[in-house]
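Two proteins were folded this term; both appear here.
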Amino acid sequence: MRRRLPYPRPTSPSATAVMRGNRKTDTRPEVALRAALHARGLRFRKNYPVVTAVRIVRVDIAFTRRRLAIFVDGCYWHLCPAHGRIPKANRGYWEPKLRGNVQRDLVATGLLQDAGWKVVRIWEHETLKDAVEIIACGDETPLRAG
């Protein structure tokens, strides 16, 4: 079992408000991508639980027949190589927290692949057009509408 980090003291009321506004599911990039996929005629499951040999992995967008799992990763929370950074305030909390997120992503990807799923991770900064193309052609045979 992993050790929980003590919650840091907020540095300001505005920091508290920002952190409370963060969502676990239905983030703006995720909702926009789902809308674009749906408009293209693609049907999927959202926040779909996949039972693996070790634990349940929740997939942001799942094409169940194709066993294709899509994750929409935020640049901040998942330490995007282009935009991710460790905050200066409360670094002792945030560095292990964010690095733990990255490690958890790697474990989840491995578990899904071991269970026969193909995993695609989309960064929030990618354009919708590019993300839809990556997903639609993300397998040997492109996804078809309907």
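Next, the second protein.
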Amino acid sequence: MTNSNVKRYVRFSTSEGTWYGLREGDTIHQLEGDLFENPRQTGRTFNVSEVKLGVPLDESKVHKVFGVAGAYNNPEGYQRVMPHPRWFTKLPSALGAHEADVEWPPHATNLNFEGELVLIIGKKGRHISVEDAPDYIFGVTIGNDWSENTWFGERQRTEEPSRLICKSVDGWASLYTDIVTGLDYSDLQIEIRMNREPVARGRTSSMVSSPAELIHYISHFVTVQPGDVIYTGTVNPPSFPGTRRPMQPGDVIEVEIENIGTLRNPVVAMKGRGKSFELPAPAAAS
């Protein structure tokens, strides 16, 4: 039976323009007004096959993209406590669409997938209690927090790209087409597949900090605003034994979350890298 409280919001384009829409099966009802302030149906409808579905938010109006590292317990290990979740940020320009290419820099040595549940903030707030936090979540979607994990540590300092680059290359914050509201996301299965083969699997119930606890924590320090995006972390263990390896051009990564859908992105070689990114050769001894 379909839950009538569950709704799916998309952002779609035609030759006439770009709008938000309410998706019901293969039909999209065009909306007008602010997505987070009771948008109205215009009465116009489109078939999904007639439009292009993109990132489900207007990237130019996204203020912040947050992420959390080490956010899941291993179901076969002890249950951890995380007083201070390990937060990082990604630039809004890193947001990428379902089916969009993800660029692999040729000097990357450890590009990785990180499929996860994503929270979309629906209203402004600070110092939000755990009890009130669910009211600030407009909906959820699927994300892939692409990361060059060697660069993240900045161990070689200026001899390699920085932590900012390792998380915020254009397209390295993939989002699924639909933002789903009214869904119980407390115990959903997440499965990650590389070239159609399962490589990682877990459940949202294994989060160290719940979505409400994450919002409670970050809002103590930073005001959350409508359209803010929170990547809640990838499953633990991060992959099945023998399947984890750096990405390379030609790979296709899928992230499926129960009752939401499947996000899919191919990996392609990045263009335009010049010699200016290489270290200069040492000067010859005189």
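The radius of gyration is 20 Å. The first helix runs from residue 149 to 152. These notes refer to the second protein only.
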